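Re: that chain you flagged

S.,

Sorry for the slow reply, it's been a week of failed gels. I finally had a moment to sit down with the sequence you sent. For the record, here it is as I used it:
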Amino acid sequence: MSPDQHLTAPNISKAEKTAWVLLLLALFAVYAPHIAYMAVNWWNDPNYSHGFLVPAVAAYLLWRNRDDLKRAADRPNAWGLAVIVAGLLLLVLGYIGHEFFLRRFSLIPVLWGLVLTAWGWGLARRVWFPATYLVLMIPLPYVVYDSVAFPLRLVAASFAGWVLQLTGMPVLVEGNIINLPNTVLDVVDACSGIRSLISLLAVGLLLAYFVTPRIWQKVLLVLLVPPVAIFTNALRVVSAGLLAESFGPKVLDGVMHDLTGWIVFMAAFALLAFLAWLMRRLFPDTSLGEVTNEK
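Prediction finished late last night. Pasting the structure tokens below so you have them in one place:
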């Protein structure tokens, strides 16, 4: 099949067009409330404020590869209907179990199944990353969030207490509470690393996608996201302890607390970007050069 044939949309009947329109309208009616509720979560919950950017990033990735996607478009694939049905079953299970995460997550296989049904496997496999990236816009179930956040609070408190002890400061760590001579620090969820972990994962996936050339490098960079988030947030707790001891606990209120959070996230991003650059520098992808030399 020539490239020109790929760029030409297949002829579809009026009945098929009508069926597609009705299907898309039905899906919009079903999922519009869930998308609206997710947007409310993004607006009200600082842990998921990055949710507004995730669909925009996924759309940019599709636009960036639009020419390749046009060439990859092929005949419809009936297996896409099975994927759509599987996604709708997740939606039903979400309603039965009163689980918002499943209802929202079901949108992703439904969208991917629509692509597979309409344009075939060649295009569907090229949009798997943007489709998978959309998972990051979905707020986690609270039971999962709490089961991750609390251990991270303990790790951040323990590490921060150890570092503060290295400065010669008397420190007593009790769970997520750090007792200092003149103040007591409560390592809450905002300081546990869970917030930056979620946002940093969204950034780390993009760095892995764009910067690192090899599969093992991409996997390694994503696996490095949790330790980087934990390490930088522990340093945030250390800095908070030093500031509180030097200027009083009120220095951590309001703008200063938000500022340190922003600085910590930027430091974590810079560290992750450096690790991506270092992997690419130490293990460059020479395949392109080899192909050029052969020519």
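What I noticed first: DSSP finds 15 helices and three strands in the chain.

Talk soon,
D.
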